[in-house]
Write a structure and sequence with these properties.
alpha+beta, zinc, four-stranded antiparallel beta sheet, RNA-binding, protein biosynthesis, about 40% helix, M/V/L/I-tRNA-synth_anticd-bd, Val/Leu/Ile-tRNA-synth_edit, Isoleucyl-tRNA Synthetase, domain 2, Isoleucyl-tRNA Synthetase, Domain 1
Length: about 1050
RNA sequence: GGGCCUUUAGCUCAGCUGGUUAGAGCGCGCCUCUGAUAAGGGCGAGGUCUCAGGUUCGAGUCCUGAAAGGCCCA
């Protein structure tokens, strides 16, 4: 006996029960233990941060991470899945700062770094339970008990080892570069962090006069969108090859004139309708070296400044074509300063305010000083114009402070030195979708810039570089032991975080003075990118484990990780081992809400995963995420869309399963009893589709094609339920057991068991629920769960393309037959005499005969046949097929087509249908047209109800004989009896006594078909005479007849 | 400003190397079937395949350009 299965499914409840079973039997670990000693399949978990609530996008990533390890496990691989947590970094610090109400770094220092970091350590796992709960509920099988944690000493020590390795290869260096800098957080931001905060902002753009030293009546007209950088001005840049002009204009006071230098192309946009006189015209290079009067002299330049320099990056489609240069506040400016040996004026303090030397605005946040600077320039007659400009400007992604571009000393990894290796190793990676490889990721590598590693913060992996306070000798430390040796103290118990590591000092080997650790931490992306090494505490231990699990076979994250984790893994792996870090990577698109809007807290359209899980279950949610669109594409998400999956796919499958179990139990059927089932055509067809499905799904999994591994199953289940099962119902209903019934059970059983395996990686709950009932329940030898089972192999001998094609044709003809019935307004319950079909070739007409029974039954007609071309066709049409003829005759095709259409269709059709060639001539050239190159279509004569699609026609003979009418009435009668049975809550197998009273014509019909009726309704007695004096079960009128019935269990 | 992606029915998506009349599901309207089904079947409305050029006998598909949206980067 199978466990009875209700046709109603409570997905949530079913899944929770399965979860309990998995937990009780520890199926996850069993599935790994199961494969011990087998080939390793290596998966890396990209560590999330557990200091925020997990959302739908995390579910997306996690279910995609889950699917391939499950598949590979079933294929016999050993797949350990070690979880991981990203615990360091600014996001964690920000949370703690918020909690403490801090707004700047000084408050943290005052509070105490040790205490602050302790809170960070706790906060990093604030939502760990939420993460664990969700991970379990969506059946992401990952080992969280052994998860690596980036703040652990062992992890940090491995990261140090990597850094030391880079140090020894001269890949770690301290540089002085202009970086995007958050004055509030007091730290430079990585490119990745900066990119999180771009948005439109309005700033004052100003045009400023810079009078020439040699000719004070002439000024350079200089443009900038950052007035606060003007006190740091040291030069003006012009483009060498752009045309510049000196124009003369009336001064706005009305008196006198002034001369201004600017790019010629900007005259109109700057002066508009105002009349200006062009005094002279010249190339930009002629401006080189021209000296101008400085705007401000707060800081004395230590090198010659205040002159025009040339630079190619000067643009002339906005501004004036003359660009103000402040090397401390722009990457381009800095480069120019280096090239031109210009001074660097640092007018701003690390907290974003002007330094005391900038007397007027000292202590004021620079952006807030803009209006005052503008006012000052105006008062001094140097301001030409100010115009608000809206442009995209970066803001700090955490605290929303406008970023400043700011020259800072910081640490870099010289990734650009290994650019060729980075590019070469990328070529070995399979990217899904493929375009990322040479697109987004490839371009990023090709334009590689050094990795800005340093962070001037508190909670993170400290940069293990010690520097002598006196001679500035630097050393990089690669292990705790090394540090112990340096200091002569056993530092095994040392917490490798600030402030404890900062307290470790030792004597400089060069000069004997004290070595202190440099203040920086490292970028958290370096933490997570180190996980292949650091999760094993390699090379300090676990050498074997590390080597067996490097590189990864499979990783998967959202596309925003291109420059995040994907890059940090790839870069570290390349610099460390010159090897690719991952072989296959699936890159997921973003999640949008049901209307295609990005989910965000501010929009309030964030869907909670639990909302969906509680209602529709994890399987449906997973299935939706897998099948909605290609993985790399963004996908919409809403509870309704998931509900759709449940309704159209899960429930169809479940009902098929429930049907099988119900009838198999009724018949006491068990698998494997009959040696060799005598399969019908329909069975063989389903098995051909089934084994084709196994083949296709397997191929898809091998190619990391999630859509290909899921969508075809939907199509199969639809065929299984709405064709195979519908067509086979009577085989299961009939009483007794015979070979045909056995074949039907065997086929359906095989399909359901196979489906449970094919669905195991994608819908792990329903798959196991079915498998355990269908297989484990009967076979004590079987694995306890589908997830411990082997992936199915398809049977080549079961494949049958011709049979599949034939059945497709049958379905099409049935569909046309239904269409014709619909037109005739004759319901399907009324039998008709005959259906005739027209098809486009000889093979297809054989199909009509072969599947005559099926067609008759499905369309409720007494006979089917091919439409006779000779006697029943009214007109023929020739359709020259462009695919065949076009490819064969190329540009002659249009004329040949015309010639074919000009033939007498009837005569030509006759020849083609006999398999003869057509002879035509075009421009004196003769051609033989083959029968397969022209499609013959016919139209049926009158007297039929016809529906057609292309060459396919279904024609119904709609004249009704008395016999047919009687049979129709009987069918109506039977249906009402069945309805009454259902309403009386009888069991499917209950036998009944049936009493009826009705009008004469119906009564006659019932008498004629008495045996049929008793058989259909499981009546042991059919009585039209002895009407009882009690309330009837049903009274009805139809087709002009009246009917009353009583029934009773026999 | 650069790179990449997307644009096909009201919605979600197919459309293989160019080839007959561009399809499916959902939704909508009408009809129908049913002792597995919250289902199934049929018919109908709904498309200038974002636009403009080009290549070709033939373009949703290939090429060029443009537009809109998205992501990433400046």
């Amino acid at each position: 006996m199978f466990k009875p299965v209700s046709s109603k499914l409570n997905a949530n409840q079913m899944e929770l029960e399965v979860l309990d079973y998995w937990k009780k039997e520890d199926i996850f670990h069993a599935s790994i233990k199961n494969r011990e000693g087998k080939t390793e399949y290596v998966f890396y978990e990209g560590p999330p941060t557990a200091n925020g609530m997990p959302g739908v996008h995390h579910v997306l990533a996690r279910v995609f991470k889950d699917i391939f390890p499950r598949y590979r496990t079933m294929q016999g691989y050993h797949v350990i899945r070690r979880g991981g947590w990203d615990t360091h970094g600014l996001p964690v610090e920000i949370e703690v700062e918020k909690k403490l109400g801090f707004t700047n770094k000084q408050q943290i220092e005052d509070y105490g770094i040790a205490e602050f970091n302790q809170l960070c350590r706790e906060s990093a796992f604030k939502y760990i339970q939420e993460w664990e709960k969700l991970t379990e509920r969506i059946a992401f099988w990952v080992d969280l008990d052994t998860a690596y944690i980036t703040y652990k000493n062992s992890y940090i020590e491995s990261v140090w080892w990597i850094l030391k390795n880079f140090w020894e290869k001269d890949l770690l260096y301290q540089g002085f570069k202009v970086v995007p800098y958050c004055p509030r957080c007091g730290t430079p931001l990585s490119d990745h962090e900066v990119s999180l905060g771009y948005r439109d902002a309005t700033d004052p753009s100003v045009y400023v006069r810079m009078p020439l030293v040699d000719d004070p009546s002439t000024s350079l007209l200089v443009w900038t969108t950052t007035p606060w950088t003007l006190p740091g001005n040291v030069a003006i840049a012009a483009h060498p090859n752009v045309d510049y002009v000196t124009v003369e204009r009336k001064e706005s006071s009305g008196e006198g004139t002034e001369k201004l230098i600017l790019a010629k192309s900007q005259i109109e946009s700057i002066f508009g309708d105002e009349e200006v006189k062009i005094v002279s015209e010249f190339k930009g290079k002629q401006l080189k070296g021209k000296r101008y009067q400085p705007l401000y002299t707060f800081l004395p330049p230590d090198k010659p400044a205040y002159r025009v320099v040339l630079a190619d990056y000067v643009i002339t489609n906005e501004g004036s074509g003359l660009v103000h240069q402040a090397p401390a506040f722009g990457a381009d400016d800095m480069q120019t300063a280096i090239d031109e040996d210009l001074p660097i004026l640092m007018t701003v303090a690390p907290n974003g305010t002007f330094i005391p030397e900038v007397k007027q605005w000292a202590g004021r946040f620079v952006k807030d000083a803009d209006p005052f600077i503008i006012e000052d320039l105006n008062n001094r007659g140097l301001l030409f114009r100010t115009v608000p400009i809206t442009h995209t400007y970066p803001f700090c992604w955490r605290c929303d402070t406008p970023l400043l571009y700011y020259a800072r000393p910081t640490w870099y990894i010289r990734t650009s030195a290994k650019k060729d290796d980075l590019v070469a190793n990328n070529q070995k990676v399979n990217w899904y979708p493929n375009h990322i490889k040479d697109g987004r990721f490839g371009n990023w590598l090709a334009n590689n810039i050094d990795w800005a590693l340093g962070r001037e913060r508190y909670w993170g992996t400290p940069l293990p570089v010690w520097e002598c306070e006196s001679c500035h000798h630097q050393e990089c430390i690669g292990s705790v032991q090394e540090l112990s040796e340096k200091t002569g103290k056993d530092l095994k118990g040392l917490d490798l975080h600030r402030p404890y590591v900062d307290e470790v000092e030792y004597a400089c080997p060069k000069c004997g003075e004290t070595m202190h650790r440099v203040p920086e931490l490292i970028d958290v992306w370096f933490d997570s990118g180190s996980m292949p090494v650091a999760q094993w505490h390699y090379p300090f231990e676990n050498e074997q484990e590390f080597k067996e699990h490097y590189p990864a076979d499979y990783i998967c994250e959202a596309v925003d990780q291109t420059r995040g984790w994907f890059y940090s893994l790839h870069a570290i792996s390349t610099l460390l081992f010159d090897q690719q870090c991952f072989k296959n990577v699936v890159c997921l698109g973003l999640i949008l809400d049901g209307d295609g809007q990005k989910m965000s807290k501010t929009r309030g359209n964030v869907v909670s995963p639990w909302e969906v899980l509680d209602k529709h279950g994890a399987d449906a949610m997973r299935w939706y995420l897998y099948t909605a669109s290609p993985p790399g594409q963004e996908r919409r998400f809403s509870a309704d869309l998931v509900n759709e999956v449940l309704r159209s796919f899960t429930l169809t499958l479940w009902n098929t399963y429930s049907f099988f179990v119900t009838y198999a139990n009724l018949d006491g059927w068990q698998p494997g009893k009959a040696d060799k089932p005598q399969y019908s055509k329909l069975d063989e067809w389903l098995l051909a589709e089934l084994h084709g499905l196994v083949r296709d799904v397997t191929t898809a999994y091998e190619n990391y094609d999630v859509l290909g591994a899921t969508r075809p199953i939907e199509g199969f289940v639809d065929h299984l339920s709405n064709w195979y099962l519908r067509r086979s119902r009577r085989r299961f209903w009939k009483s007794g057991s015979d070979a045909d019934k056995e074949a039907a059970y065997s086929t359906l059983y095989e399909a359901l068991v196979m489906l449970s395996k094919l669905l195991a990686p994608s819908m792990p709950f329903i798959a196991d629920e079915m498998y355990r009932n269908l297989v484990v329940n009967l076979d004590p030898q079987a694995p306890k769960s589908v997830h411990l089972a082997d992936w199915p192999k398809f049977n080549e001998g079961r494949l049958n393309d011709e049979l599949v094609a034939d059945m497709n044709l049958v379905m099409k003809l049935v569909s046309l037959g239904h269409a014709a019935r619909n037109k005739s307004q004759i319901k399907v319950r009324q039998p008709l005499q005959e259906a005739a079909f027209s098809v486009s070739n000889i093979h297809d007409s054989a199909v009509i005969h072969e599947y005559a029974d099926l067609l008759q039954d499905e369309l409720n007609v007494k006979s089917v046949r091919a439409l006779s071309a000779a006697s029943e066709a009214a007109a023929y049409e020739l359709v020259p097929l462009p695919k065949q003829l076009g490819q064969k005759y190329k540009d002659q095709f249009p004329l040949i087509r015309k010639a074919i259409l000009a033939l007498d269709p009837e005569k030509a059709a006759g020849m083609l249908l006999k398999g003869e060639n057509l002879k035509i001539s075009v421009d004196g050239e003769d051609f033989e047209i083959l029968p397969e190159e022209v499609e013959v279509r016919m139209q049926a004569k009158e007297g039929f109800e016809v529906a057609s699609d292309g060459a396919y026609i279904a024609a119904l003979v709609t004249t009704l004989t008395d016999d047919l009418v009687n049979e129709g009435l009987v069918r109506e009668f039977v249906r009402r009896v069945q309805e009454a049975r259902k309403q009386a809550d009888f069991e499917i197998a209950d036998r009944i006594r049936l009493i009826y009273s009705c009008s004469a014509k119906l009564k006659y019909a019932i008498e004629c078909f008495k045996d049929y009726i008793m058989d259909e309704t499981l009546s042991v007695e059919l009585d039209g005479e002895n009407v009882p004096n009690i309330l009837p079960n049903l009274s009805d009128e139809f087709d002009g007849e009246t009917l009353t019935i009583w029934l009773d269990k026999a």
